[in-house]
Amino acid sequence: MPRILRSHTGPRTEARPSVLTAQELQIAGLASRGLSNKQIGERLNLSHRTVSTHLYKIFPKLGIASRTELRAALDAGGPPSDGAGRDIS
């Protein structure tokens, strides 16, 4: 199975789950559980606009167009985690 998390120094390839940063993976996992941008921001100490920007960048990397597609996209690339290796499902 392809890894979802990539290192910051590794190569970037668009539309592949393996290019998500740790923070993108964490945000995607929380969004896939149904949390709003505001709720995600409160949990991660980020602005809701920062969360929105991350999701805007995540969708094309995963080849999806909506939040409803996040869970399937994350499941296809391995178990979602919070970016520190802990399962958040």
Q: Which ranges are low-confidence, i.e. pLDDT below 50, for 5 or more consecutive residues?
A: 6-15
Report the count of strand segments: 0
The SSE string, one letter per element, is HHHH
CATH superfamily of the domain at 17-77: Winged helix-like DNA-binding domain superfamily/Winged helix DNA-binding domain
Per CATH, what is the topology of the domain at 17-77?
A: Arc Repressor Mutant, subunit A
Q: Percentage of helical residues?
A: 40-55%
- Return the CATH class of the domain at 17-77: Mainly Alpha
Principal-axes geometry comes out as globular
Known CATH architecture of the domain at 17-77:
Orthogonal Bundle
Our measurement of the CA-to-CA distance between the termini, rounded to an integer number of angstroms, reads 18 Å
Query: What radius of gyration results from the CA coordinates?
Result: 12 Å
Number of H/I helices: 4
Mean pLDDT: 78
Strand percent estimate: under 5%
Oligomer: single chain
Class by alpha and beta content: mainly alpha
| Biggest sheet descriptor | none
